[in-house]
Amino acid sequence: MILCHIYKNTMTTKKPSQPKNNQSKLAIAKTADTPPSRPMNADNRLKFFEKLSQHIKDPVTELNYSNEFELLIAVMLSAQATDKSVNIATARLFPVANTPQAILALGVDGLKSYINSIGLYNSKATNVIKTCQDLLDKHGGQVPRTRAELEALAGVGRKTANVVLNTAFGEPVMAVDTHIFRVGNRTGLATGKTVLAVENALMKRIPSQYLVDAHHYLILHGRYTCMARSPKCGACVVFDECMFKDKEKWADL
């Protein structure tokens, strides 16, 4: 990029400073926006999940919860927020209110006082209150077990519904977040321009024996190894199977 500076009617140009090392060069390329890699073949997809399952011994969510309702609320609060920040908030909220009735008793303003450290807490509080009311009015206070019923709740979209179906009820569904979208495209496991396209591709391409746990394998791999800006290719257990064209460069850093 050329930066133009105008001073006393004189235009001069200044070249950007050069990256100091290979890592900064690669970072400038925005690895998070890397184009989709070539598709991974079936044999490598099987090896990919075999290796992840050996490396990730406990493929579970990092959100803290003790029942289906707490999980639903935690996932709703996690939109555009880290699991760590949600866990801090729910550690204060759930001991006080962890049922639809108890959260409704707090009211919107009362709920906000527990979750105001999380981004978008105003709209999240409103949606949680509406959802609690719907759970009582339409589902006997229980978390529904179908995607359609979950998505009918305020603030619950396809991704949240899929997380609840998979994590709470063990359904073989795939919730695609930013980490999984990146891993699918970067590795060539399942490519697509939209979240739904990647979800559909993953459902077709993940070996059936790994499908229930695949969401957590991929999100944990994306969170701690196949990271957006600085993927740890040199320490990646699925390096050989991955189709990322720059993996050798990142492995050398």
Can you characterise this structure?
- This protein is mostly helical and 253 residues long.
- The chain has 2 domains: 96 residues, Helix-hairpin-Helix base-excision DNA repair enzymes (C-terminal) (Endonuclease Iii, domain 2); 102 residues, Hypothetical protein, domain 2 (Endonuclease III, domain 1, Orthogonal Bundle), CATH 1.10.340.30.
- The protein is built from 12 helices and 2 strands.
- Strands 1-2 form a two-stranded antiparallel sheet.
- The two termini are 26 Å apart.
- 34% of the residues are buried.
Return Rg in Å.
22 Å
CATH topology category name of the largest domain: Endonuclease III, domain 1
Mean pLDDT: 89
Name of the CATH architecture of the largest domain: Orthogonal Bundle
Strand residue percentage: under 5%
Strand order of the largest sheet: 1-2
**Given the structure, what is the number of helices?**
12
**What is the β-strand count?**
2
Name of the level-1 CATH class of the largest domain: Mainly Alpha
State the low-pLDDT regions, or none.
1-20
Distance between the termini: 26 Å
Q: Would you identify the CATH H-level superfamily of the largest domain?
A: Hypothetical protein, domain 2
The topology string of helices and strands comes to EEHHHHHHHHHHHH
Please tag this protein with its features.
mainly alpha, disordered N terminus, Endonuclease Iii, domain 2, 253 residues, 4% strand, 2 domains, Endonuclease III, domain 1, two-stranded antiparallel ribbon
